[in-house]
Amino acid sequence: MSTSAAVVTALTFVWLGMVFAISFLEAPLKFRAPGVTLPIGLGIGRLVFRGLNVAEVVWATAILVAVVLGSWPGVATPIAAGVAIATLAIQLVAVRPALTKRSDAVLAGHEGPRSSAHLVYVAFEVIKVAALIWLGAAVLVSAT
Fold it and tell me: What's the pLDDT tens digit per position in 55-77?
């Protein structure tokens, strides 16, 4: 396995694990804990997702560099990496601001109508997870 393939494999599966742990475990479970109100849960979620997104940008950047510098048979690895990175970019640029606006309103005491931005974010998380699984598998297959 080349250095680029090893880097992409490691970062891909770390990134995938972080998304699974935070988006699909921590996020829904925190609201089930005793005493966690919606404002407290949103406050915690904002901090946790801000940290996750910073880490994701670091992993995505490192993966992009490794993919650009590496040599890949076929196009599966570059395309899968592109899908994962593009999905993250869409989440950060298009969806996250709507979530922040909604959580700002709730934290200020203005409940208002529910936003569909959360469901859009979750849909992009599912796409990102699929792309990361595809990327990890593509690199492992190309390394054999």
Answer: 999 999 999 999 999 988 889 99
Task: Determine the structural domain holding residue 122 and report its residue range.
Answer: 3-142
Return d(Cα 83, Cα 132) in angstroms, integer: 9
Cβ pair 107, 46 in contact under 8 A: no
Lookup: tokens for 59: 């992993």
pLDDT-derived band at 30 (thresholds 50, 70, 90) equals confident
Distance CA 56, CA 23 (A): 12
The tokens of 6 are what? 């090893």
Question: Looking at the 3D structure of the chain, how many domains does it have?
Answer: 1
Alpha helices (H) along the chain = 3-21, 27-30, 38-69, 76-90, 96-107, 117-142
Q: Which two tokens stand for residue 58?
A: 């670091």
Longest dimension (CA), the chain: 56
- The phi and psi torsions of 75 (rounded to 5 degrees) equal -115, 0
Neighbours of 90 (CB within 10 A): 16
Q: How far apart are CA 88 and CA 23, in angstroms?
A: 13
Write out the two tokens for 142. Answer: 């190309």
